[in-house]
Design goal:
This protein is α/β, with parallel strands linked by helices. The chain has 17 helices and 5 strands. β3 (about 245-250), α11 (about 260-275) and β4 form a beta-alpha-beta unit. The radius of gyration is 24 Å and the shape is globular.
Length: about 425
């Protein structure tokens, strides 16, 4: 195999894997055994680019690649022309809560905004400035004047035209008003932080928002998904193919009390219905969690009958390796796929460190057999970390030490991030 990647990018991937996390960029370089999932995601993205909404659950046990799939989707979607947002749920960051946990999730999603060329998040202002600058150019062309001579009213009219398809959203009038205010201050070279805070759901108080922006609402626990729906519409207006939202670590919801858990499942049901019934266009939602999050009859999604009847696989889908339903299940890698992963890591390690490793394919096979025979279970995360450690050690050792290094080598079972 030949990996097409530069030294710096390869180093980012290797350092992330060695730290036990999925690389923020370059996940596609180590993708193995996910062909059916990738094809299914491609179909999802095509639907979204056609204005159709998609809502799916990515489900699997710890170490089967759920987080890897989210990063793969994130990178692929951004490179394909989509706007992308992602957030991990936690005890303080849920879909709804008495302490503004839903609002916090919205803030995390907004801060993560990613587009092609800006893969580290924080793309909001660049997106707004590019789009509004394009509208000013369009207004200047219409009026036959220099862009510097364009009147605010002309750009405001274009904002209304370009976002007319969003007018049915409850917050649309406020959204458009803040867009205009942002443009006015941007064009004048003035501070736009108040407008940015409102877009990000970071209002100090509603009274402050009324006095500074003349709007009657901000993103909060009860309406944040309405803002996400608007951002999906805006993404389409701004020239993107749509919006992809990734929510990981959904298992945190299983660990909450009954009232809080049911309240959060109410939100999932509402989001699912909005997307599935066409009220959230140009939007793909992916929510990731373990089998417990989905199937636990007391605390999982299947304990909430309205969700269970919508997303449970049919009798034809159960037990089959398919990735076309509402639930996409990630499976453990086969031994052959694990070997392919290690060979990719070996090549990336050599590129990152600019050297020729003494490790051969036969040695990779021997290492893998030894590790699997001495370990209870080996996830891709643990396997990658251990193999990179071995490669680092072997850089300064003769090949003769290889068998001594791998003899009796074992790793702990990956239990992931558990919330209690």
């Amino acid at each position: 195999m030949v990996v097409k990647i530069g030294r710096k990018s390869a180093n980012v991937v290797i350092k992330a894997l060695h730290s036990g996390v999925v690389p923020n960029r370059g996940a596609e370089q180590i993708a193995v055994g996910r062909k059916s999932e990738v094809l299914s995601i491609d179909r999802d993205l095509q639907d979204v680019s056609d204005g159709i909404g998609v809502f799916r659950f990515i489900i699997g046990d710890y170490g089967t690649g759920k987080t890897f799939m989210t990063q793969l989707i994130r990178t692929h979607a951004a490179d394909s022309g989509f706007m992308v947002m992602n957030a991990d749920l936690s005890p303080s960051c849920r879909l709804r809560g008495s302490g503004g946990e839903g609002e916090m999730t919205y803030r995390h999603l907004m801060s993560s905004m990613t587009v092609k060329g800006m893969m580290d998040g924080g793309a909001l202002e660049a997106v707004l400035q590019t789009w509004l600058g394009g509208l000013r150019e369009k207004a200047a062309e219409r009026a036959g004047v220099d862009p510097a001579s364009v009147q605010v009213k002309e750009v405001e009219d274009l904002i209304r035209e370009e976002t007319e398809h969003m007018s049915y959203f409850p917050m649309y009038s406020y959204f458009r008003k803040v867009l205009v205010k942002y443009y006015v201050r941007m064009a004048a070279g003035r501070d736009t932080s108040e407008q940015v805070r409102w877009f990000n759901g970071d209002c100090r108080t509603l009274t402050d928002a009324r006095s500074t922006l003349d709007v009657g609402s901000c993103a909060n626990d009860s309406n944040w998904f309405s803002f996400i729906r608007m951002w999906a519409g805006f993404a389409a207006a701004a020239g993107y193919k749509g919006l992809v939202v990734l929510i990981d670590q959904a298992d945190v919801l299983v660990k909450t009390g009954n009232a809080s858990r049911n309240s959060n499942y109410d939100v999932i049901l509402s989001m699912y219905n909005d997307v599935s019934q066409g009220r959230a266009k140009s939007l793909a939602m992916y929510m990731c969690g373990t089998t417990e999050f989905l199937e636990d009859p007391v605390r999982g999604l299947f304990s909430y009958n309205a969700l269970k009847t919508r997303i449970e696989e049919s009798r034809f889908e159960k037990g089959r390796d398919i990735a076309t339903g509402q639930v996409m299940r990630t499976r453990p890698l086969t031994i052959e796929e694990q070997e392919a992963l290690l060979l990719k890591i070996l090549e990336l390690h050599q590129i990152a460190n600019e050297y020729q490793s003494p490790m051969t394919q036969q040695m990779v096979e021997e290492y893998l057999r030894s590790l699997l025979s001495n370990s209870k279970a080996v996830s891709p995360r643990v396997l990658s970390r251990d193999f990179i450690s071995l490669l680092d050690i072997m850089k300064g050792r003769p090949v003769e030490d290889f068998r001594a290094l791998i003899s009796g080598r074992s790793v702990e079972e990956d239990v992931g991030q558990r919330f209690v």
